[in-house]
C-alpha cells in the first residue's frame, strides 16, 4: 500500500480518508484542493495543478476523491498521463466477489457489495451499502450512491449517477451521463443524458 496523494478535501474526501485509515493504508502524503480545503491530519499541498511537480518529487500513487463524475474522471486521467498509479481502495467491510473487478481510481466504501463477475470501470465510486449484483458492468467514472441497488446484469454507461437508495431492475441499461434520482425505481432502459425519477422512474423534464 503506497502513500497516496489525495485530490479533493470535501465531504467525499473525508469519507475516503476514513476508509483509507480503516483499511490500514499509510497516512496520505497530502491533499490537493483548488478551494483551499483541508482534511484532518493531512498536509495541504496546494491546488491540483501541483500534481506534476509532486510526481517529480517522488510521489507515485494518488486517488481522486471528488464526487462529481466528470471532474473525477478528467483529473484521474490527467494523473494517469503524468504517471501516477491510481490503486483501487476497498473499505475492509466492502464485499467483492472473487471474480469481480474494481478499476483503477475506484473506491468501494463501507459495506458496498460487488457481486459475482461484476465489473466496475475506472474512477468508480461504490458508495456505502450499495449493492451491485452479479454480472453488472459499470462504465468509467460512475457513482452508485449509498444504499442503491443494481440487479444482476445491469449495464451503466460512462459518468452515470445512481442516486441514494435507487433501484435498477435486472438486465437494464443506463446510458452515458444519465442520472437516476434518489429513491427511483428503474424498470426500463434509460437513454444517455436523461434524468429519471420516481416509482416507477419517469424522465424529469430538462
Ligand atoms: C434528480 C435530481 C438530480 C433533481 O435535481 P434538480 O435538477 O436540482 O431538480 P429539483 O430539485 O429542482 O426538482 C425538479 C423536480 O423534480 C422533482 N424531483 C427531484 N428529485 C426527485 C426525486 N428523487 N424523486 C421524485 N421527484 C423528484 C422535484 O419535486 C421537482 O418537481 P416539481 O417541478 O414538480 O416541483 C436530484 O433530486 C437527485 O435525486 N439527485 C441525486 C442525489 C444523490 O443521490 N446524490 C448522491 C449523494 S452521495
From TrEMBL:
Binding residues for substrate: 67
Boundaries of every PglD N-terminal domain copy: 3-77
Binding, acetyl-CoA: 143
Residues flagged as site, Increases basicity of active site His: 135
PANTHER family per UniProt: ACETYLTRANSFERASE, UDP-N-ACETYLBACILLOSAMINE N-ACETYLTRANSFERASE
Family label: Belongs to the transferase hexapeptide repeat family.
Protein name: Acetyltransferase
Organism annotation: Teichococcus oryzae
